[in-house]
Amino acid sequence: MQVFIAKEKESEKRVAAVPDTVRRLVRLGLSVAVETNAGVGSAIPDAAFEEAGATIVGPDAISQADVVLRVQSPPKETIAQLKKGALHISFLNPFSDSSPMADFASASVSAVSLEMMPRTTLAQKMDALSSQASIAGYAAVLMGADASPKILPMMMTPAGTIQPAKYFVIGVGVAGLQAIATAKRLGARVEAFDTRPVVAEQVQSLGAKFVQIDLGEMGQTEQGYAKELTPEQLELQRQGMAKVCSDSDVVITTAKLFGRPAPLLLTKDMLKGMAPGSVIVDLAASPTGGNVEGSKPGETVITEEGVQIIGCDTIENHSAQDASLMFASNLVNFIEHFWDEEAKTIKLDREDEIIAGCLMTHEGAIVHEKFANA
Ligand code: NAD
């Protein structure tokens, strides 16, 4: 079986394999082809892949591959090049754009969407959303710190005492927890809020303060995701957070709702209450709107009051090598988990909970229950 590691588009620095995962694939008996310069954005030269047992190939070699690994959804013309019956594993963003699914189905390619990986203990090792969210939470703090005119830790010097910076993390999922841990390690005073009350304990165990806002009934779905708030609850939340925001040097927003647009949490009015020089890092920024009014993905917007809003796009690119390492491990964990040693192939058992959760297309059709009849 031939595995092809694709070079991503120019703006994506991550790559879906690292030398260690190439070795693991080769050990399984797969032959690995890596597209020329696929690892450049992550500072992994072609020679490192070759040393690990891969062959370096041109882009057209994708048409011979049985398995294609990549980070982002491929362009339409690349899908058309794929071999019938091939397996394609990547993020696909199925809630924002369903067209790749239709293209995979008509090319008779089995496409796995990593966003749809079930949040179960068994699937944790293959959960790329989580591994990349950890990197994103860490990187958000560094980006916020870099843009802020203030240092994070308390400093007592003969020149005077500097108070620790105040960081406020909104949304305490995987990214939020990592942001809290990173800001604490660097010496900031950290507060956090999430609509899932169960996370209060986790926030406190990291040494941060959980902001209490009474929103009435809240909670989470079976998969552990937040439930959507009513407009009245959202308004109450904004009121409850306004004072904390105005006291903060850096606010990091990570609040997302699975399969739906992110909630708008910081309005222009709230931003007016923040001090000049303060920074907001919006990890949920997207073309359909993020957590912060006026944030733009991939751009830094400065308000009239001098508040910087950093709209994150693929923030994982900030630490691309380690992001690639975790992403690539998730993919090989998936392949190893479903590897049939006797048949030397990946077994796509559609009765399996993980496969049923993340397999979008198979044998010429869209098969995922959420999208099949959409
Ligand atoms: P996410 O990226 O979907 O959302 C980030 C956070 O935003 C969540 O904590 C969510 O509760 C919060 N949020 C949503 N609306 C909000 C609002 N109005 N105000 C403030 N916060 C808001 O979440 P995630 O990081 O993917 O994690 C979701 C859940 O899944 C968590 O409970 C996490 O622990 C769990 N999880 C489980 C596994 C597993 O068991 N394998 C793996 C990863 C995550």
Concise overview:
The protein has 374 residues and is an alpha/beta fold. It is 30% helix and 18% strand. Bound molecules: nicotinamide-adenine-dinucleotide.
What does this structure look like?
- By secondary structure, this protein is α/β, with parallel strands linked by helices.
- It has 2 domains: 160 residues, NAD(P)-binding Rossmann-like Domain (Rossmann fold); 184 residues, NAD(P)-binding Rossmann-like Domain (Rossmann fold).
- It contains 11 helices and 19 strands.
- The strands form 4 sheets. An 8-stranded mixed sheet has the order 3-2-1-4-5-6-18-19, with helices on both faces. The protein has a 7-stranded mixed sheet with strand order 11-10-9-12-13-15-14.
- 45% of the residues are buried.
- The model has no long low-confidence stretch (mean pLDDT 95).
- The structure holds nicotinamide-adenine-dinucleotide.
- Nicotinamide-adenine-dinucleotide binds next to helix 5 and helix 6.
- Its EC number is 7.1.1.1.
- Belongs to the AlaDH/PNT family.
- Keywords: NAD, NADP, Nucleotide-binding, Translocase.
- It is an enzyme of class 7 (translocase).
Write the layout of secondary structure elements.
Layout lengths: L1 E4 L13 H10 L2 E5 L10 H6 L3 E3 L9 E3 L6 H6 L5 E4 L8 H8 L3 E4 L14 H20 L7 E3 L2 E3 L3 E5 L3 H12 L3 E5 L6 H6 L3 E2 L20 H16 L3 E4 L14 H5 L6 E4 L17 E3 L5 E4 L8 H18 L1 E2 L4 E2 L6 H6 E4 L2 E2 L8
Parallel strand pairs: 1-2, 1-4, 2-3, 4-5, 5-6, 9-10, 9-12, 10-11, 12-13, 13-15
Antiparallel strand pairs: 6-18, 7-8, 14-15, 16-17, 18-19
Helix pairs in contact: 1-10, 5-6, 5-10
Nicotinamide-adenine-dinucleotide (NAD) binds next to helix 5 and helix 6.
